[in-house]
Amino acid sequence: MKAIKKITMIAALLLGTITCIAQVKYYSTTKTFNQCGYNTYQCDVKYQEVTLYNKANKRTYKNQIFKATGKEPPLFNNPDDVLDDDWTRVKSEQIVNAAFSTIERQRVKGSALGVSMFIDPDSGRVIEVKFETTTFSPFATIPVSVYRKIETDLKDSIWFTPTTDGKKLNYIYRGWNQYIVTP
Fold this sequence. Notes:
By secondary structure, the chain is of the alpha+beta class.
């Protein structure tokens, strides 16, 4: 009987330890992540708002402008920058959702993750991705490797067909807040 209690206590302790480890807040302060096998990620924290992106990104904090004039498009103007499509939004959301494990999906359930794609105006390919959350969001407990997977999968699988107006911009922007779907 004592052996069963001891095993139960050890199992509970291990489960508690695993739960605590899994819920580490990775993005509570501004810092750089150097991960083996891929590029460096930057986490910028300002007023508890987190911006996470590949440090090689060049557009994360650059305004969208017209290449010829250097002027920004009018605010809240939805330029006709890509041909209409019926698959990119759904596919992008599927890619983001699929990157999270079942346990991670349960953990972030009910919270929104900001996902932004920067698109090359000439090729229509996704060239940069950034993520936005808060320091207190459950998304702050997700390791950078998951965000890296989302970035590479979006770059590999998503493309647009830029219009003449879209080709006039320094980049085409698409962004959304995503709620992760649980199985």
